Amino acid sequence: MNNFGKLKDLVMSLEDDFSKFYDKQNAAAGTRVRKGMQELKTMAQAFRTEVQNTKNAAAGAAKAPAAGGAKKAAPAAKKAAPAAAKKAAPAKKK
């Protein structure tokens, strides 16, 4: 939850600058808003990566075979359907 706190703090720190920019047309506040939004974007991407890695690590641990267990064979790759078997799109009505 520490990441969520960081995210909330960043958003709340931008509140005054949003107000100054939109209500008082303060250009410098707009620059600070843009800078803060860029930080938010970077932070969000880092959090997304962290969540994905944590999820994948947990899924990998759940799928790991028990000690001494036999490994499962890899599934066979699916072959693409022949071009002739594909259906053509219906004709457009005029």
Automatic annotation (TrEMBL):
InterPro entries: Hc1
Highest rank taxon of the organism: Bacteria
Pfam families: Hc1
Compositional bias segments (type: Low complexity): 61-88
Region feature (Disordered): 61-94
Protein purpose: Might have a role analogous to that of eukaryotic histone proteins.
Record family assignment: Belongs to the histone H1/H5 family. HCT subfamily.
Protein's name in the database: Histone H1
